[in-house]
Amino acid sequence: MQFPLLSVIIFIPLLAGLAILLFPAERREWIRGTALGAASLTILLSFILYLSYDSPVAGYQFVEELPWVPSLGISYHMGVDGISVPLVLLAGIVLFCGVLISWNVEERPREFFAFLLFLATSVFGVFCSLDLFQLFFFFELAVFPKYLMIINWGYPKTREYGGMKLTLYLFIGSMISLLGALAIYFGSGAHTFDLMALEKAGFSIEFQRMWFPVVFFGFAVLGGIFPFHSWAPDGHVAAPTAISMILAGVEMKVGAFAALRVAIMLLPQGAQYWAWLILGLGTVNVVYGALIAMVQTDFKYVIGFSSVSHMGLVLIGFATLSKEGLLGAGMQMFSHGVMTALFFSIVGMVYDRAHTRDIPKLGGLFQKMPWAAIGFIVGGLVSMGMPGFSGFVAEFPVFMGAWRAAPWVAIIAILGILITAAYIFLVIRRVFFGETPSELLRVEDITVMDKIAIGLLVATMVGLGVFPSLLSTMVQTGVNHVLSLLGGA
Amino acid sequence: MAPYSGHLLTLILFLPTLAALLLLFFPARWASFFRWAALIASLVPFLLTLSLWLQFVPDQTGFQFVEKVDWYAALRSTYVVGVDGISLPMIILTTLLIPLAILASFSIKERVKAFMILFLLLETGMLGVFMTLDLLMFFVFWEVGLVPMYFLIAQWGSSNRNYASLKFILYTMGGSLGLLLAIQMIGVVTGTFDMQTLFQTWPTAKVTFLGLGTPTIKAIAFWAFVVAFAIKVPIWPFHTWLPDAHTEAPTGGSMILAGVLLKLGAYGFLRLVLPLYPVESARYAGILAGLAVAAIILGALAAWGQTDFKRLVAYSSINHMGFVVLGIAAAAWAANLKDTTTAAIAVNGAVLQMFNHGLSAAGMFFLVGVIYERTHTRNLTEYGGLYARLPIYGSILVFTALGSLGLPGLGGFVSEFLVVRGAWPVFSFATGLAMIGLFFTGAYVLKALKQVLHGPVNKHWQGNIAEINLREIVVIAPLMVLMLVIGLWPTFLLDMINRAAMLWY
Q: Is residue A488 over pLDDT 70?
């Protein structure tokens, strides 16, 4: 039997989290040592997964299948394709960096790290699922660590509101898509939850058109689609730093990925029918999100809304249903995940030291924390789609796809680039340059752990920007499969 | 043949980046180490460029030293570089001006490490534009050079630097959005970004989008290209970022802004607009010529009206670059009339004017910087009679200023003459107006010289102003020599440019 790489990646965090809960609370070194060990192992294995995925062969690889509830057609079915492998790698990177920057968590570190690891198991599980029921299982598993972490470790002023809002939004969203999933289950007539079997189920056009929006929008709530995006900035801001990184960096991709895997791939003709709506809403995401980000004075809200803006490009890429668009969406999910994890980690570092996120009260921090400043600048350049960084190689194909599907989308959405450039340059200048306010004169530099995290994230974005084929070849194989479903439908 | 010659362009292109990355690992307090390391790191590409020039075969068709590697295979974009007689002079200009600008920046005292690293990164960005033969890569290099320049202005600029740097980057990025859209559209329609293929296929390609036909779409795409390049050149009325950025930038930054960055825009016209849009270029050549003349006249008048020495030099760039655009417009129109001789002359003039303006503008900004470091003012009314105090500086200033004015015997005269000779048969009226603009050019140059060097001695500077030093002379001397050599014996450059231009038509 083949080594069950995916299961190992998925369950290492869960097991480590359970082990941590058994430790005595005062053993801080054991706790964070175990968390770091698990995260290191996970990132290493996800990198091995990335290296060993065979792009020329394409298709689902590392497949594991065991019966789970055979009477209902539910199985434990794992497998990855060219679109999900980068996302597994992304989750591995973000988890590792999240643990690093949470190294000095003071408050109940035992529960903190355990919940963080549980959350990781949930996202890995979704990315690797080839069974619809199992996908939902992992999808919902995230709810409780997310909620508990926000209300316990979040920003005291808004954590209850933000945590509740986020949980309710996502809960309603997933209930709606669960409804759609049940319809798919019964509609297929095959009485199976197996995604590969359902891809071939051949749903009628009327069925697809009716149920596509239910499934898609249910999941897309977690992807931050307008007008269901407002949980995202509030939730991200209320969450503790490591959770903001995972929420914006990985969880939003979970939503987008599930929307692709279930809604678009199982109901391709429904996707073709409703594409115009998603294109329109995605365009609103891009431009409106950027405009709102521009007027924020809270450092963290700027980043929160920028995520809404960037996820719009993922949605546009999906909805173009074209080769370039889907490729770009796949690249953008990875690129944005790394970028926004970097952003939130730096915002957290600044807040921990300056004790304020109010942009007018910040300034001159380049002198105090040069690594954080350079990291933020690189993240900013990625965010505005500057060539040479990963944002450009992801956004460019999205726009090419938009030219194929709906040129006006490309023409309007491109404004997002300019607006983003404007607010990013303003934030960089106001936070990291200029006069240092007297209260911040004694701010200390970031820790070595922080620097490792920033260095890893920056290197990933620059590396991908300079050598896009490192990822695009793989994503392309996944896209080809989606295209075959769209064309064959 | 040396073993590296197969990758000569790649070496020239990425050596500065490599050096910048290495410099990251040295401690920031070694200020003079960074100065010398950056200088040496930028001299190597210059020497390699000289070797490139020696190996370059002028009368060979097409691009030379071509290297090709897959880059973004999923979009069929490749890393492909090559040079011809139009890009080679620009590469020579860039690799020459960068070491000089670094030497000129030895007087920077703050954060020398970051300054030098940004400067080297800037060099790669600019060289990439001149070398690449892939449309997507062109855009990559086109944009990426903006970032170091933004930080050079925002961090080392003078008092109004925040406003100027933001205006610079948003103006240029905003202007490039149309270019970006047009490149995406071309990629979708043709399925390739390879320039050499596109030169063959794009002018005749059929495109329809949003219910619009081929001529309309092409005209829109043409203007998208033109606006992006016009902002960079800059052509009136897209020039307003320039006086702010050039005035606020540190001296080395201004030298590169005026010396090389403006050429990127003009190069974009020659490399992309004329070959990709021959029909549209000819159709709208009259408008371009009109805007060029407006830039020549209004640029000169605006320069004349300045009281800030650096701003005056900044506006003079608009005036001089107007001649480049006039030459390009004339070439587009003449090519349409099948008057290939005139078209080739106009292209020759435009390229040589780009080179000459690179020399004279960099020189002028440097000399403004020299006097500013000593007086801490750029206000023309606060100088006066400095010739008596600074005879060497004064002589150099007069020489450089006259070179920029277009005095026969110096480079500017040859190229402006060629542009006028190329434009006269096709745009006689516009050329006539441009000659009037040339009169104002003389007026503002002489005004600046008079206010700085002549007249009653401003007592304020009595005894407390130092003569130009040896390092500064080393910076300006190569520029002066080249101006003189091109003025007296332009053939050594023109030969190369001319053969490339003749091969076009």
A: no
A408 touches chain B (CB under 8 A): yes
**pTM for this prediction:** 0.91
ipTM: 0.88
**Domain tally for chain A?**
1
Nearest to B70 among A414, A429, A469 (CB): A469
Handedness of CA A423, A426, A432, A438 (dihedral sign): negative
Task: Note the pLDDT of residue A1.
Answer: 58
For A164-232, the DSSP string reads HHHHHHHHHHHHHHHHHHHHHHHHHSS---BHHHHHTS---HHHHHHHHHHHHHHHHHHHT-TTS-THH
Structure tokens at A19: 């082990």
Report residue B67 as tokens: 């290297």
Q: What is the DSSP string of B190-225?
A: HS--BHHHHHHHGGG----BTTB-HHHHHHHHHHHH
Domain of A432, in residue numbers: 5-488
Residue B79 — φ and ψ, nearest 5°? -85, 105
B-contacting residues of A 425-454, CB under 8 Å? 425-426, 429, 433
The alpha-carbon gap from A344 to the nearest alpha carbon of chain B, in Å, equals 23
The β-bridge relationship of strands A74-80 and B64-72 is unpaired
Between the alpha carbon of residue B306 and those of residues B159, B309, B370, B430, B451, the distances in Å are: 18, 7, 19, 26, 12
Q: Which of A388, A407, A469 sits opposite B72 (nearest CB)?
A: A469
Grade residue A123 by pLDDT with cuts at 50, 70 and 90: very high
pLDDT of residue B214: 86
**Percentage with pLDDT > 90 across chain B:** 40
Residue B396 in contact with residue B405, Cβ under 8 Å?
Answer: no
Annotated domain spans of chain B: 3-504
Residues of A in contact with B162 (CB under 8 A): 429
- Which of A59-68, A240-249, A414-423, B55-64 comes out lowest in average pLDDT? B55-64
Q: What is the pLDDT of residues B241-273, one digit of tens each?
A: 888 888 888 999 999 999 999 999 999 999 999
Pairwise CA distance, residues B419 & B289, whole Å: 12
Query: Residue A489 — very low, low, confident or very high, per pLDDT cuts 50/70/90?
Result: very low
Residue B100 has pLDDT above 90, yes or no: yes
**Rounded Cα gap, residues B43 and B16, in angstroms:** 10
d(CA B139, CA B143): 6
Kindly report, residue by residue over B290-317, the tens digit of the pLDDT: 999 999 999 899 989 888 889 999 999 9
Write the secondary structure of B285-313 as one string of H (helix), E (strand) and C (coil): HHHHHHHHHHHHHHHHHHHHCCCEHHHHH
CA B132 vs CA B136, B173, B193, B483: distances in Å: 9, 20, 11, 28
Q: Is the peptide bond before B58 cis (omega within 30 degrees of 0)?
A: no
The helix or strand, by DSSP H or E, that contains position B391, with its residue range, turns out to be: helix B391-405
In one letter, which amino acid is A50?
Y
Contacts of A424 in chain B (CB under 8 A): none
Q: Do B184 and A421 touch (CB under 8 A)?
A: no
Q: Which of residues 246-275 of A touch B (CB under 8 A)?
A: none
